[in-house]
Amino acid sequence: MIHILLPVQYLAKRREGRGEPQTRLMLAVLQTVVDDYRGSTYRHAAGFTWQRDRRAYAAARAYVESTDRTWPFSFENLCDAVGVDADCLRMELARG
User: Fold this and answer.
1) Are 89 and 80 in contact (CB under 8 A)?
2) 62 CB-near residues (< 8 Å, 6+ apart)
3) Could you give phi then psi for residue 76, rounded to 5 degrees?
4) How far apart are CA 34 and CA 22, in angstroms?
5) C-alpha to C-alpha distance for 14 and 3, rounded to whole angstroms
6) For the chain, which terminus, N or C, has the lower number of CB atoms within 10 Å?
7) Separation between Cα atoms, residue 1 and residue 62, nearest integer Å
């Protein structure tokens, strides 16, 4: 028996796995904020001593604590766009 697979069937699945470019960008921004807030997980995983960049931490903390929604890439807007509860993420970051 021959099974026919239409392009729309396999292209949709490939896109679902990778996500849309703007969504990947939003997730990358949030990952960078988390890394700056907590100290880079990559540096820590690579065996470097844990050291927080004070300027990056201060900027990340101000960004996370802001409730401004006027900027498209504000913390609140990014969390909404990717389906993350902004208040829960704030609390988790504050817990350390």
Assistant:
1) no
2) none
3) -60, -45
4) 18
5) 19
6) N
7) 61
